[in-house]
Amino acid sequence: MTLHDFIRAMPKVELHVHLEGSTQPEAVLHLANKHGIQLPADSVEGIREWYTFRDFPHFIEIYLKISECIRTVEDIEWLGREFLRGQAAQNIRYTEFIYTPYNHFQQKGLSGDEQLNALNRARAWAQQELGIHSAMILDIDRMVRPEEGMWTAELAVRFKNNGVVALGIGGNEVGYPCSLFRTAIDYVRAHGLVCIPHAGETVGPESIWDALAVCDPPRLLHGVRCIEDAALTAELARRQIPLDACPTSNLCLGVYDSFASHSLPALLDAGLNLTINSDDPPMFNTNLTEEWLRCADAFGWGTALIERLTLNAIRGSRQSAEYQAQMEFELKAEFARLRDQYGV
Ligand SMILES: [Zn+2]
Predict the structure, then answer these.
(1) Catalytic site residue 201?
(2) Which of 12, 76, 160, 226 is most buried, judged by most C-beta within 10 A?
């Protein structure tokens, strides 16, 4: 038995993964056939090939095509189930996932309430049938107009105690700081909801400083480029704000050339609170299990560190202190049992 077997078997927690960006080739083919939509390929292998990351414009093209194939609330519920089934198959016990409802409203007229009710049905099914607990972060795509961002903020507040745990800010970071959406962010915060933005991925420390000032976030999606600014790194370490890192996504988007040059070891040395995540798994040819395997191989991570970062994720989740404590207890017991079982 090896560390790889241990990683495959271990209980997991994921906080930074996009629902639409998790659409597997089989799923996009199913939806395209259902609605008579032409895709660039008509086989799983062909779609996998088309999915292979080339550059950001191609990545957006795929995202838009997937979005075009999602036409009804039934599609959204089905996709939610497929996503949670894939998460549960990796032994992910709790996942927060990011969803961008405005696209589906703008393109297809699906109301926000209908969309979230569909996802709540999928979440309840997954909790009941697969034992996976989940919650949603509703994302504003940075390229929409600030007033359009308010549509998502109002929806997030309406579902605050009904599946939604945060407002997110995502999409193209270059030229679109969080401060553009200050009104939407202030609105959700005034209604008791947090904002968890993407920052410090394709833009450096200035984007994270902006996010800290505007959102006062309990967590950051990515955040890995804080390492370029010693004062910022020290601030994030002092406040122990979890950074939901996605190593393979960073490599695909050219933030780093290779695992060897990734900032993860330096971030750990600096005492930062890290979690490991997959972002848009099929588009980056990964999933959470793969991310752990790759980190273990590249950085020589052992079970103690892997357990610590998994516990960071449950403590960084937007769940109650009671839920976190119970999960922490269960995760620790299971890690101990698996360590014995696998002899690692
Ligand atoms: Zn992301």
Answers:
(1) yes
(2) 226
Which two structure tokens, joined as six digits, stand for 174? Answer: 């270059």
- C-alpha 299 – ligand 1 centre gap (Å): 23
Q: Among residues 14, 173, 201, 291, which one is catalytic? A: 201
- Distance between Cα 118 and ligand 1 center (Å): 22
Q: Which CATH superfamily is domain 15-287 in?
A: Metal-dependent hydrolases (3.20.20.140)
pLDDT in tens, 127-145: 999 999 999 999 999 999 9
Residue 1: band (very low, low, confident or very high) from pLDDT cuts 50, 70, 90: low
Check pLDDT > 90 for residue 197.
Answer: yes
- Å from CA of 278 to ligand 1 middle: 8
**Cα(321) to centroid(ligand 1), Å:** 25
Q: Indicate whether 189 pLDDT > 70.
A: yes
What does the pLDDT look like over 157-185, one tens digit per residue?
999 999 999 999 998 888 899 999 999 99
The dihedral formed by the CA atoms of 154, 159, 160 and 163, expressed in degrees to the nearest 10: -140
Q: What distances in angstroms separate CA 252 from CA 49, 228, 247, 248, 282, one per listed residue? A: 15, 20, 9, 6, 12
